[in-house]
Design goal:
Chain B: Belongs to the mitochondrion-specific ribosomal protein mL49 family. Chain B: This is Large ribosomal subunit protein mL49. The complex is a heterodimer of chains A (286) and B (185). Chain A has 286 residues and is α/β, with parallel strands linked by helices. Helices cover 29% and strands 13% of the residues of chain A. Chain B has a four-stranded antiparallel sheet with strand order 2-3-6-5. Classes of the chains: A alpha/beta (286), B alpha+beta (185).
Chain lengths: 286, 185
């Protein structure tokens, strides 16, 4: 929580102005909180041209950098979808092997109880990988939110956060133009363009399609792994506002942020996913 | 017989859709989705909405977002809760409130020593004051003076400057809450 020992004179009485006035900033009373700011640029020319300055929410873009929580988030993202489908059969599951192959003594051969014992060719596994297994787990919402805030704080503090007025301002759909633009502005090798929805400006999509290290995603696809993976994060102003509103509204919800994931809470949602697609006669159209 | 009837009926349903297309002048390739997707018809009765005052029910529904902090002008609160000063007091530190607009005081019980007579662990009860911005050590000095004046015996404090937290041993939580309200946070 410590931002600066001395009071920021302009911060007293300063309120973060957002487009969505219904969601109030939780730290607007604190005079020691420095409100981070960012330029809003246009993508019309290769050279950097700043159009406006926008204030950012300090709880999101100037949060205490909890690197341990960010690490937990990234590890979670990498592991929670893991599924192991292999099963190595044990000696009981292998076909045959019910009878003692030769008598215990006097044959000169080693002691054997079944031909599917692990030391036999075509025998079962002693300590094999057993059946379908999942590494699924869910992190509490507080840790996921803190991880996002930390990742965004890091990107902003390291000058890797770019706010564009709109992706419509991109003047050309030539991928070389976008590449030179990113090169002139020192965006780095990989750039992630974030828009409000999946309907992104056509010129940007055409340009990004041909550059493998540049990608465009909607706001609901933003995650810690992607934020840290890409060198630069380019958000539209609308996407920034929506992101801030969504994160702030989560901090202001009545439910506990330490809620434990229970399948029971999500069961009706998961089982009812394809309900409207069901037809008594025809199979679902995919 | 019942099974055969259902297959005949399903065939009728398919024929019905092709019959509809037969009577239209549109070619199949002009609108391929019309034939590919099944025709779904719904039969709902008409309805009329009557004006009902739902206020008595809405006030009982659970809230989804925490309501904004009540003002000091909303009157003295029976729980003893006090609103923070607006603007905040001119001190070198600032103590924020939790999500639920309460002073950030948290209790902790740490294991202390094993008592060899009773063979039980003895515990130490601590109170943590979090959400401190600015000069945490100045807050610690003020806190110590306040508590020692109230209690009459010295209290131990542990200051974590990075986290903006002070842990106190030997003072009840209610007294720290009194300090937070007295300072105007």
């Amino acid at each position: 929580m410590i931002a600066s020992v001395f009071r920021a004179p302009s911060a007293i009485g300063a309120v973060c102005q957002f487009r969505f006035a219904s969601v109030a900033s939780p730290s607007h009373r604190n005079p020691f909180v420095v409100t981070p700011e960012a330029f809003v640029t246009t993508l019309s020319d290769e050279a950097e041209k700043n159009v406006a300055i926008t204030k950012l929410e300090p709880t999101i873009f100037r949060a205490t950098p909890r690197l341990d929580l960010l690490h937990r988030n990234i590890v979670w993202q990498e592991n929670y979808r893991n599924l192991q489908l292999t099963k190595q059969l044990s000696r009981a599951e292998m076909p045959g092997g019910g009878k003692k192959p030769w008598p215990q003594k006097k044959t000169g051969r080693h002691h054997a109880g079944s031909i599917r014992s692990p030391h036999f060719k075509y025998g079962g596994f002693a300590h094999g990988v057993r059946g379908p297994r999942t590494w699924f787990y869910m992190l509490p919402d507080s840790i996921r939110l803190k991880g996002l805030c930390t990742a965004l704080t890091i990107k902003h503090a390291q000058n890797d956060l770019v706010i564009a007025d709109s992706f419509e301002s991109l003047s050309s759909d030539d991928p070389l133009f976008l590449h030179n633009l990113a090169d002139t502005r020192n965006w780095g090798y990989s750039v992630l363009f974030v828009d409000t929805g999946s309907d992104v400006a056509t010129k940007l999509v055409d340009a990004v399609e041909h550059i493998p290290s540049f990608n465009a995603i909607p706001i609901y696809g933003l995650n810690c792994y992607s934020i840290m993976k890409y060198d630069t994060l380019v958000l539209t102003k609308a996407a920034l506002d929506e992101l801030q509103e969504k994160i702030l509204s989560q901090f202001q919800r009545t439910d506990s942020l330490q809620k434990k994931y229970k399948y029971m809470d999500y069961k009706p949602v998961l089982l009812g996913e394809g309900q409207h697609e069901e037809d008594p006669v025809f199979p679902p159209y995919v | 017989m019942a099974k055969r009837l259902s297959t005949v009926l399903s065939r009728c349903r398919v024929l019905q859709s092709s019959n509809i297309r037969y009577f239209s002048s549109e070619k199949p390739w002009e609108n391929p989705w019309e034939h590919a997707l099944p025709k779904q018809s719904e039969t709902f009765t008409t309805f009329k909405e009557s004006p009902v005052n739902w206020a008595n029910i809405e006030r009982l529904l659970p809230r989804s977002t925490i309501p904004p902090m009540p003002r000091a002008t909303d009157g003295p609160f029976p729980s003893g809760w006090q609103a923070p000063q607006d603007p905040p007091p001119a001190l070198p530190y600032f103590i924020g409130r939790t999500r639920y607009h309460l002073p950030p005081l948290f209790l902790e019980r740490r294991r202390d020593e094993l008592n060899p007579m009773t063979m039980d662990f003895e515990y130490v009860e601590l109170v943590a004051l979090k959400e401190i911005s600015g000069d945490v050590f100045a807050c610690d000095v003020d806190l110590k003076n306040f508590l020692e004046a109230e209690l009459g015996h010295p209290v131990a404090t542990y200051v974590d400057e990075l986290k903006g937290m002070i842990k106190v041993k030997g003072a009840p939580r209610k007294l720290l809450e009194k300090f937070v309200y007295a300072q105007g946070f």
